[in-house]
Amino acid sequence: MKVYGDKLSGNCYKILLISSFLDKKIEWIDVDVLKGESRTSEFLKKNPNGKIPVLELDDGRTLSESNAIINYLSEDSDLMPTDKFEKYKTQQWQFFEQYSHEPFIAVARYINKYLGIPSDRKTEYESKQAGGHKALKVMEEQLARTPFLIGTSITVADISLYAYTHVAPEGGFDLESYPFVLRWIKLIEKTPGYIKMS
């Protein structure tokens, strides 16, 4: 399998992390979005939306959207609950990540880390802070009750949210106010097969 992505992207890191946890072999192909490499005609054949990551199977079929990819890779593993309710709870957290977490924390990180907070995006950067802290508070409330988002074991839900949460300070979010989130981050980093973001 091939993965097209950027190792500094949280969405791409999800795939590297789950592949390491599950010992799945992938061929990594770097795509520099700042140079327009995700907008070439060749790349757009793989993902017409022009975004990374993209998983390309051995038979040429492709899958995009990071959470769809990690769910595909984790099927029939311990990272994907078999209980029907818990399986859909993982999806609940993944939808939360895409709609209530990533648009604030990941975008603020991108504006700061990739762009250096240019003057024309400073207001946008500042506007992301309240939404990011709201998402972190939701996670904190759950993680005060259970060590992982679904319960006592790591699942794809944790991988989805860990990717950008652990680098949230790069988007201006101080995690010291979220002790249970910090405990959860440490638990994930102690999981066998864990690898750091490049």
From TrEMBL:
Q: Does the keyword Glycoprotein apply?
A: no
Entry keywords, A to Z: Transferase
Biological source species: Leptospira ognonensis
Gene Ontology molecular function, alphabetical: transferase activity
The GST C-terminal domain sits at 83-198
Q: What is this protein called?
A: Glutathione S-transferase family protein
Q: Which domain of life is it from?
A: Bacteria
The GST N-terminal domain extends over 1-81
